[in-house]
């Protein structure tokens, strides 16, 4: 059986890391696409030359033409610009919206049956725009953010409690911005919810609040340290987790920016919610109950995303 084809649209920091991870995990053959000439070709060749030591068999190709993504099973989109210190993700909206237009049209023409994972920021508005420009079914276009934000939360919690990260579960919902919603009640150590761990004296409410805020600021913390761009290792790992769930029909329950129409009282928009990913893409939205405080935070985040989508429509009338 032929290996799956994975097209990476954008061969920058995340794109290169995605290609390396996809190769090491033998998820399929990889096409790295970018407008920068030489970059995708150079990264593809470099990664291919890690194959003999690593022991993987995957074809790695660099490309500057959309024709090379033809028939891709999965497209992961990182094309665009990352933020620099002092910027918010929302400052990238105008420039990255134009990129989503060309990427969406390229996918529509050459890989209309792909499962598409958008990473480009500001995430929730960009995945919405990418879906509009590509015209693909909503269940086949999804945004990566919740897996990353939840991984950050899980990492901070495992350090706080001095327990294995494998035993920490966490959910971060809402938009991938300052208003994101880390849900303490739905986050656990091996099934023990965080509020119970606070009551058991494992930590204090004050320290828990600090960890929740650090999770919300997780992207900015790394931008401040790197100075020239944003996080790329954990974002790439998170998107690969989603791609693998699709390619292997794993039915993973992962928080993703999915199209929500009905669940959570929402009326047709992209935002971070719990989803099931399997061979049909987003197979289910898991409509968990939020308490009044959680609902208020979620509503605020939804409003922020709606504001960004309205801004997209203002910039590009074809989206209105
Ligand atoms: N969703 C998330 O959780 C998350 C996490 C990290 C980064 N991001 C976002 O991902 C994006 C990429 O980050 P990065 O660190 O890989 O940036 P990067 O600058 O290293 O790479 C971006 C690449 O996109 C290419 N590009 C630009 N315009 C293009 C076009 N029209 N077609 C094809 N390629 C194009 C550039 O040449 C560059 O190689 C940024 O917008 C960043 O904010 C999102
Ligand atoms: O923070 C950023 O600009 C990149 C990304 O959204 C992240 O959370 O790391």
Automatic annotation (TrEMBL):
GO biological process: one example: lactate metabolic process
GO function term, MF aspect, one: L-lactate dehydrogenase (NAD+) activity
Residues of the Lactate/malate dehydrogenase N-terminal domain: 5-143
Domain Lactate/malate dehydrogenase C-terminal residues, every copy: 148-306
UniProt-listed Enzyme Commission number(s): 1.1.1.37
Alphabetical UniProt keywords: NAD, Oxidoreductase, Tricarboxylic acid cycle
InterPro entries documented for this protein: L-lactate/malate_DH, Lactate/malate_DH_C, Lactate/malate_DH_N, Lactate_DH/Glyco_Ohase_4_C, Malate_DH_type3, NAD(P)-bd_dom_sf
Binding of NAD(+), residues: 10-15, 34, 96, 119-121
One Pfam family per UniProt: Ldh_1_N
Residues at the catalytic site: 176 (proton acceptor)
Catalytic reaction equation(s): (S)-malate + NAD(+) = oxaloacetate + NADH + H(+)
Annotated binding of substrate, by residue: 83, 89, 121, 152
Signal peptide (from-to): none
Function of the protein: Catalyzes the reversible oxidation of malate to oxaloacetate.
Database matches in NCBIfam families: MalateDH_bact, PRK06223.1
Similarity section: Belongs to the LDH/MDH superfamily. MDH type 3 family.
Name this protein carries in UniProt: Malate dehydrogenase
GN (gene name): mdh
């Amino acid at each position: 059986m032929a290996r799956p084809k994975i097209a990476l649209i954008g061969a920058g920091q995340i794109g290169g890391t995605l290609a390396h991870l996809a190769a090491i995990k033998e998820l399929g053959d990889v096409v790295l696409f970018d407008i920068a000439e030489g970059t995708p070709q150079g990264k593809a060749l470099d990664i291919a030359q890690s194959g003999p030591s690593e022991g993987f068999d995957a074809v790695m190709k660099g490309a500057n033409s959309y024709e090379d993504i033809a028939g891709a099973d999965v497209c992961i989109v990182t094309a665009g610009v990352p933020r620099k210190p002092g910027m918010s993700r929302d400052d990238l909206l105008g420039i990255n919206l134009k990129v989503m237009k060309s990427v969406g049209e390229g996918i529509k023409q050459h890989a209309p049956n792909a499962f598409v994972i958008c990473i480009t920021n500001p995430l929730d508005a960009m995945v919405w725009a990418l879906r509009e420009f590509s015209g693909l079914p909503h269940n086949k276009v999804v945004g990566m953010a919740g897996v990353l934000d939840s991984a950050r939360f899980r990492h901070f919690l495992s350090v706080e409690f001095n327990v294995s990260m494998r035993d920490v579960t966490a959910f971060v919902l809402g938009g991938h911005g300052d208003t994101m919603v880390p849900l303490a009640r739905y986050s656990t150590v091996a099934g023990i919810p965080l509020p119970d761990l606070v009551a058991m004296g494992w930590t204090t409410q004050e320290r828990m609040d600090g960890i929740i805020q650090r999770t919300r600021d997780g992207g900015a913390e790394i931008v401040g340290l790197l100075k020239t761009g944003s996080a790329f290792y954990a974002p790439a790992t998170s998107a690969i987790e989603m791609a693998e769930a699709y390619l292997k029909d794993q039915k993973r329950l992962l928080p993703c920016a999915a199209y929500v129409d009905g669940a959570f009282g929402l009326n047709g928009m992209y935002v971070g919610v719990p989803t099931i990913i399997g061979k049909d893409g987003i197979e289910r939205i898991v409509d968990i109950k939020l308490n009044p405080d959680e609902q208020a935070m979620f509503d605020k985040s939804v409003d922020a995303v709606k504001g960004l989508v309205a801004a997209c429509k203002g910039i590009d009338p074809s989206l209105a």
